[in-house]
Write a structure and sequence with these properties.
Blueprint: E1 2-4, E2 7-11, H1 12-16, H2 33-42, E3 47-49, E4 58-60, H3 66-76, H4 79-91, H5 96-104, H6 115-136, H7 138-145, H8 151-164, H9 179-206, H10 213-223, H11 231-245, H12 252-261, H13 263-271, H14 273-279, E5 296-302, E6 307-315, E7 318-327, E8 330-336, E9 341-348, H15 353-371, E10 375-376, E11 379-381, H16 387-396, E12 400-401, H17 414-424, H18 447-452, H19 460-488, E13 495-496, H20 499-506, E14 514-517, E15 520-525, E16 528-533, E17 546-552, E18 555-564, E19 573-582, H21 597-632, H22 639-643, H23 653-660, H24 683-689
Parallel strand pairs: 5-11, 11-12
Antiparallel strand pairs: 1-2, 2-4, 3-4, 5-8, 6-7, 8-9, 10-13, 14-15, 14-17, 15-16, 16-19, 17-18, 18-19
Helix pairs in contact: 4-8, 5-6, 6-7, 6-9, 8-9, 10-11, 11-12, 13-14
Organism: Butyricimonas virosa
InterPro entries: RNaseH-like_sf, RNaseH_sf
GO molecular function, one term: nucleic acid binding
């Protein structure tokens, strides 16, 4: 925007720049390129200067039809006012000599000016320099103001432009807003230079009404109050204290100026720490990962789709049913920002730890469908919901777990992704509930229309089908890019998850413990008795333990047995576990044998042979050790008494006494039949036969 031949003009780019499909008016173009060409062809708008190298085409703002003028003002502001301010801004150049002068100047007490004062005074001088150039050069004055009737009118316009500059932090100044005082200020500056500016403002800079620490602290507390007091209220409360302490009173305008210089501290009190972190603190710019599974983010989403549900209620002892229509499903989604691919999800009535686990299970199974194996992400980021319960689960699912800071919505890229899905897909469905509560009313669905059509809302199964259909579309949009990125990823960077890890994290149980039998571990799954066993030789060493069997309902070929530290009825997982295979069932009749039956039979026989061989080797070794022990240690000669071995007549004490050298009266006992027996004279012979 600028003045040309005394008229406020706009450029072609300002008229046609923007996105026609943008939600905000200020992001849309004032008119389309097609409309602009039609208006210029018919001569409905005045093109005062055609485009040439280095100079854009200029169109008279007043020649635009009314609706386009209104659209332009809504997007950019009034060009006639802004063109004047823009011209002044273009001429404001920081006066480096003035900045050096104010930086080196000292007060009578030896103090230097504060940096804020130096910047303000330097800007005052720089603006006056630009103002002097405009008012002394006729061509520049005409360019800045167009046609004007009198010098006083010109000064009024320039005073307004100087006032408008205060809206910009870069041009913050303390020049007067009244055009007469502004004119006098310029004349004084012309006569006395930089020193005149210091003397004229020394009282205001060094004797401020708010120079005392207590006064500033009082203002700080009032301005930072969480009730968001307005300037009039702050001034009234401050003056109540000031009148009792002998301080100078202040006006609401003084409070407003003070607020501008102390914005950061009061913002925290007025809006909270979270709002300050999200809106005022420095933000970190991040880019999406280049490869899949480098980074996953997880969040729950109350989908903006309504469904009807019948509920049973009770009032005054009477039961009745009611249908509600304000229900919304919840989706827990795992998003891979590499290509914004929804890698996993689960749908429920509300967010729970169980729903989160189901979403992770869906994600890992989908990864196996895409890439042939289970793979873990390198990094996982979640919010803090259920973190105490799910912390060990999250850490087991990834290499690095990085929870987002509490109430830091910007850390999770999945939330703007939900907003996009809601706008692009959910918005088209008849049971759409609208945007968030902070959205403008005109963007929400009509309440009356929703109420009239509530009976057409789908039930639970219907809304689940809608959500799953949307997710299928989202996956189809980026699945090829996702696979291509995986193909470019280094093999050593792929974190494969074993079947055992998957079953430990996501396997289901029957809720009961199981014992190891000769036929393996039997468990009733989905109404069918399923037998599992392990070819790990050490598994049967722990056959006395009770086991928890975890399985995948969609693939019963393998399972994992986890030591049960609780009871069979109330199992509790331990740390010892083994991978199990489903038992191969052999036919009884040889006639019914099929390919693979013999191999499985041979596999079992080989396992038993190896186990028997191992047992024999252990027994042989232990026997050898015991024999050597008895041969080397003479004190073990009375081991017969310790082993409590009886003779062939069933007597132990007589034999013990005889070996000990004690004489006892022998009692003869008659037998109905003669019994052959062998007398033992040497313990080593006995043990050798044993």
């Amino acid at each position: 925007m600028e003045w040309y031949n005394g008229l406020a003009c706009v450029t072609y780019k300002e008229l046609t720049d923007g996105d026609p499909e943008a939600e905000k008016v200020e992001d849309r173009p004032v008119m389309s390129v097609f409309t602009y060409r039609n208006l210029t062809t018919r001569g409905d708008i005045s093109v005062l200067r055609r485009a040439c190298y280095g100079h854009p085409a200029l169109i008279s703002f007043r020649s635009l039809p009314l609706k386009y003028r209104e659209a332009f003002v809504a997007k950019y502001g009034d060009p006639e006012k802004m063109a004047k301010t823009s011209c002044l801004k273009d001429l404001v150049i920081t006066d480096v000599k003035a900045e050096a002068f104010f930086s080196g100047w000292q007060k009578p007490n030896g103090d230097h000016l504060k940096p804020e004062q130096i910047r303000t005074l330097t800007m005052n001088v720089s603006i006056l320099n630009a103002l002097n150039e405009i008012m002394t050069d006729g061509l520049t004055l005409h360019k800045a103001l167009g046609n004007f009737r009198s010098p006083s009118e010109a000064w009024r316009d320039m005073a307004k432009s100087v006032k408008e500059l205060k809206k910009y932090d870069r041009y913050r100044h303390t020049l007067p807003e009244n055009y007469r005082r502004l004119r006098d200020r310029l004349e004084s500056y012309r006569a006395n230079g930089y020193r005149d500016f210091i003397h004229a403002n020394e009282g205001n800079l060094n004797a401020s009404k708010l120079k005392e620490e207590e006064q500033n602290a009082m203002l700080q507390e009032l301005a930072s109050d969480g009730r968001n007091l307005d300037n009039e209220m702050i001034a009234m409360l401050y003056n109540t204290v000031a009148s009792k302490l002998g301080w100078n009173t202040i006006l609401a305008g003084t409070v407003a100026n003070w607020k501008l210089r102390n914005m950061d501290v009061q913002y925290v009190g007025r809006h909270g720490v979270v709002a300050h972190r999200n809106n005022k603190a420095m933000q970190v710019k991040r880019r999406a990962p280049r490869f899949p599974l480098y980074y996953w983010t997880v969040d729950g989403w109350d989908v903006e789709l309504l469904y009807q549900q019948r509920e049973e209620r009770e009032k005054n002892g009477k039961k009745y049913s009611v249908v509600t229509y304000s229900n919304r499903p919840t989706v827990v989604m795992l998003l891979d920002p590499c290509t914004r691919y929804p890698v996993g999800y689960a749908i429920g009535t509300h967010e729970t730890p169980e729903l989160i686990r189901e979403a992770f299970r869906n994600a890992f199974k989908h990864v196996k469908e895409l890439f042939g194996h289970y793979y873990k992400p390198w990094q996982l980021q979640t919010d803090n919901y259920g973190k105490k319960t799910l912390l060990s689960f999250y850490e087991a699912c990834t290499r690095v777990y990085t929870p987002a800071r509490v109430k830091n919505a910007k850390a999770k890229v999945v939330e703007p992704y939900f907003k996009k899905v809601n706008s692009k897909y959910c918005h088209l469905l008849p049971n759409w509930s609208g945007y968030g509560v902070t959205s403008r009313k005109e963007n929400q669905p009509n309440d009356e229309w929703l109420n009239q059509n509530r009976h057409k809302f789908p039930g639970w199964d219907g809304v689940v089908g809608q959500v799953e259909g949307i997710i299928r579309v989202l996956r189809s949009e980026s699945i090829e890019k996702y696979r291509q990125a995986w193909g470019k990823m280094a093999v050593e960077d792929r974190l494969e998850m074993s079947d055992e890890e998957y079953l430990v994290l996501f396997g289901e149980t029957t809720g009961y413990g199981n014992s190891l039998e000769g036929g393996g571990v039997g468990s009733t799954i989905l109404g069918e008795k399923v037998w599992y066993d392990s070819f790990d030789p050490s598994f049967r060493n722990w056959g006395h333990l009770n086991w928890i069997v975890k399985y995948d309902p969609e693939d019963l070929s393998v399972a994992v047995a986890i030591e049960n530290l609780g009871t069979p009825g109330k199992p509790e997982e331990g740390t010892r576990r083994f991978m199990l295979e489903r038992k191969h069932v052999q036919p009884m009749a040889l006639k019914e044998r099929e390919p693979g039956d013999f191999d499985e039979l041979r596999r079992v026989q080989d396992y038993n042979d190896r186990r028997e061989k191992m047992i024999k080797e252990k027994r042989a070794r232990s026997g050898e050790v015991v024999r050597e022990l008895f041969e080397e240690r003479a004190e073990l000669n009375d081991t017969l008494a310790k082993l409590v071995l009886c003779d062939s007549r069933g007597q132990h004490k007589d034999e013990r006494n005889r070996l000990a050298g004690r004489t006892t009266k022998q009692v003869e006992k008659s037998c109905h039949e003669e019994v052959d027996y062998e007398e033992v004279f040497d313990e080593r012979d006995l043990l050798r036969k044993f």
